[in-house]
Every structure is written in structure tokens, then in C-alpha cells.
Amino acid sequence: MAARVINSSSVWLAAAVVCMLVVASAPHGGEAAGITCGQVVTPLMSCVSYLQGNGASPPPPACCQGITRVNSLARTTPDRQTACNCLKNTAMKLNGLKPDLAEALPAKCGVNIPYKISMTTDCTKVN
Predict the structure, then answer these.
(1) What is the per-residue pLDDT across 43-83, written as a single tens digit (0 to 9) for each?
(2) CATH number for the domain harbouring residue 102
(3) Which alpha helices (H) appear in the chain, and where do they start and end?
(4) How many domains are contained in the chain?
């Protein structure tokens, strides 16, 4: 087949995994919590094909821009925990997601994550 169809659940899951990585390392800020799942997932949709691929090429620039965007939105502990839960829930629905690519994605985009990225991450411990 010449073209691959990516279903919407795949998009949401990949975005969730990426966001989980980014939001957990976001700096603390003074604004009130209020991030939504849509604000977390939408900027990361361009990461899906990379996370389902072989990792031979770098992540798309739009993917890294999305990671940076989500990182800037998740400023408080409640926001980061919300984003983490959103990403985990979305990731569980994605077919073909490569956990090793998701784990390495923040570093490939120049974002430092101080812990291992995994579906077993306890979002209640994200600060």
C-alpha cells in the first residue's frame, strides 16, 4: 500500500506520550492550573508518524515546536499532572507507538526530562 492511514486514536496516543515527557519537566510557574487535554494533544499531532516510524530521521520540526509549546503551557504541578494523565490515556489507544522513540523524543528536540519516559510513569508524582 503506498499510503498509510493513521487513525485519530493513534494521533492522540502519540501526542499523549510526547506531552507526558514534556510537561513533567516544565518549570514551575505562578499561573493557575487549567490546561486541557486538547491543549496538550493538538500541538503534538505532528509527532505521530515519527513515533510510529523507525527513528531513522530526526523528528519533524513541527513536532519539536509542539513539545516546546506544551512545555510552556504546563507551568504548574496540577497542569503537568493533568497533561501527564492526558498523554498516558491517549497513548494507551495508539497502535504502533514505539516506546523507545517516545522516550528519546524530548532529548532529540532539545528538551531535558529528568526521569525515564514510560507508560508506567506515576503522574501523581510529576511536580
Answers:
(1) 988 998 999 999 999 999 999 999 889 888 888 889 888 88
(2) 1.10.110.10
(3) 8-23, 37-41, 48-52, 61-73, 77-91, 99-108
(4) 1
Distance from C-alpha of 51 to C-alpha of 44, rounded to nearest angstrom = 11
Please return the burial class of 18, using the count of CB atoms within 10 Å of its CB with bins 0-12, 13-18 and 19+.
Answer: buried
pLDDT at 18 over 60: no
Q: Whole-angstrom Cα distance, residue 89 to residue 94?
A: 9
- pLDDT tens string 87-118: 888 888 888 989 899 889 989 999 876 566 77
| DSSP 8-class letter at 95 | S
**How is residue 9 annotated by DSSP?**
H
Task: List the domain range (segments joined by +) for residue 56.
Answer: 35-109
Is 0.85 surpassed by the pTM of this model?
A: no
Q: Which residue's entry shows cell 526521569?
A: 115
Of 10, 9, 8, 72, the residue nearest 40 (C-alpha): 72
Does residue 103 fall inside a structural domain?
Answer: yes
Q: How far is CA 91 from the centre of its chain?
A: 9
